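Input set for joint prediction.
Command: fold jointly, output tokens.
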Amino acid sequence: MNNLILTEVLDTALDIQKAYDFVANSANGAVNSFVGIVRNNHEGKSVTGLTYDLHTTLAKKAFDDICQKALELWPETKYYVAHYHGELSVGGISIIIAVSSPHRAESFEACRYIIEEIKTKAPVWKQEHYIDRKSEWLPGHSLNG
Amino acid sequence: MNNLILTEVLDTALDIQKAYDFVANSANGAVNSFVGIVRNNHEGKSVTGLTYDLHTTLAKKAFDDICQKALELWPETKYYVAHYHGELSVGGISIIIAVSSPHRAESFEACRYIIEEIKTKAPVWKQEHYIDRKSEWLPGHSLNG
Amino acid sequence: MSELSISLKLFGSFRKFGQVLNLRVPTGSTILTVKEKISKTIDGQESELVFDSVLADNDAILPDTHILNEDIKLSILPPVCGG
Amino acid sequence: MSELSISLKLFGSFRKFGQVLNLRVPTGSTILTVKEKISKTIDGQESELVFDSVLADNDAILPDTHILNEDIKLSILPPVCGG
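tokens >
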């Protein structure tokens, strides 16, 4: 959307170095990044993997809008967001967020803001697969209002 | 010091992927990382680079102690800290901190804790080099008491 | 009474009903009416989830009061849990 | 009065005085006395900085009240600014 924000929905492995390389900037002394990983357990159940379902167009639009809003809240920041689309085994990377800023405080604050906003506003759904071969779509936050 | 903490003082380029790979763990769903970069300006002056001076033994000991304390504050977390020793040009990476945790809140909190503690407690000094070829050691936090 | 066609793309836990649901509703129906129609079409299963979901075209979420006057492609977006 | 030797490694802004400073102080001197000796040795330059600094052996910071009874290698650690 501009050279301060890059968001992607990918069905190939997410790349931490790419995230860093996009946001790194000689005027910005700090990069904070968040990586989400498929855990081997959830609420006491043994998890073997997750399927990530996204409305690709609206999810990318949501990521862009969230980053744009963050850029207004924390000027001189730069953003990379990538979300995985498809199936992942335990240990797979579902999301990478990286934020650079002149000083460290904003990088932490803006990165936290992005993940919290994505969790409640982006059209993404998770189906958990369990060791007993059962699966379940996880409950979430309604986009109503 | 144990398999939950890896700290290093390096005079070779710091590696983000290495930081991630050390802390990634199938029980931990979140990794937060912080990267410090040499900025091209500081307090209105054009900066060309920085020299990082460390008391290698005591700095590594300080990093270990800080991570150990964080591990007590946020159980089930895992830590990587690398600090550069020597000269860096603008854009160079001076520090990488990565923290993994079961859930995202602790990863942000513990990573922020580590960088704040390092800034005030680890024997590390910075000499800034300016475009007019002058240099200056930056003021800091006394380790007194 | 004239009708319009809706091609409704399904996501998340609605995927158990297929990829797409084809519906017909009276011209001038609101999104809320479409949700009632969806609920009937899937036999009242997941009825609560239908009303906790939103409908969207490819640009934006459409409010429950939005009126439909022509054939349209929509998506039903259940409560989200990304990241 | 017997004396002991201190080999003092310099860091940060003390590096302008060299890598190491060799000092002699009376046996039984405290760290505070060593700081006074350092301050004199560098002609009162950076005197405030000397007292804002700490002295450490290779294991830990030594408090100002710590007493030295034998030759020792120390480091002077000025205020820090890592990261």
